[in-house]
Each structure stands twice: as C-alpha cells, then as structure tokens.
C-alpha cells in the first residue's frame, strides 16, 4: 500500500513538473510603423497607404490616406495624446479624401491606447475606438 501511495505521489509530481507555463506577454512597444486598418468605426479602403510612425523623440509622422502628416505625441503607460502639427495638401480621389478627413478628425480625440491581439487600439476619453492599427 505504501508503495502504491509513493508511486502515485511520484507520478503526480512528474505530471505537475511537466506542465507548461504560459509564456509571458511580449512587452508592448509603440515605437515603429503602424498600418491604420480602421478609423471612426469604419474599415479603411483596401491598399490605403494610411499609417502612423512613432519615433523615440516623441514625434509622429505618417500618411492619412492622401497626404503626409506629422506632429508630436505624449505616451505614458496607457495614455497617448497626439498633437498633429501639419500635413501636405495634395488632392486625391473623393473616397480617399473622405477617409483622410475621418482620420484627421479622430487624431485629436485620442487620449488612450490599448494593445490587444497584436493590434494597437487608440481610444478617446470615453473609451470609444478611434483608430485600429497593426504593426508593419
């Protein structure tokens, strides 16, 4: 009987020791280029060049579908605030111009971020999604 208990305890310890532990989540890194997939709740036009690049010096740049944009940002923990400083002024087809306007409108509303399932979600102060981006 003692042998059986000892054998059972040994098997239990072996099984517990072989359990895999979940891998730690990779640390989130904002710095880099992110493709904009959705703005103001609407998906972007296929093959749209809309993207944002966050640099280590708290500057951002990118493309809002038609024109290049640039500005400053503040990022600390889950807080993210963008201050668009300017953009080029090219004309594009109407669909891209409308998409560009949506993106420009939401940029100043952003004040929080969340990183979920490989997506960067930029939120307004009420927690509503403004932009959804994926790493390029």
Automatic annotation (TrEMBL):
PROSITE patterns: PROKAR_LIPOPROTEIN (PS51257). Pfam families: META (PF03724). Residues 1-25 form the signal peptide. The keyword Hydrolase does not apply. Keywords: Signal. Transmembrane segments: none annotated. The keyword Cytoplasm does not apply. Residues 32-133 form the DUF306 domain. PANTHER family: HEAT SHOCK PROTEIN HSLJ. This is META domain-containing protein. It comes from Shewanella cyperi.
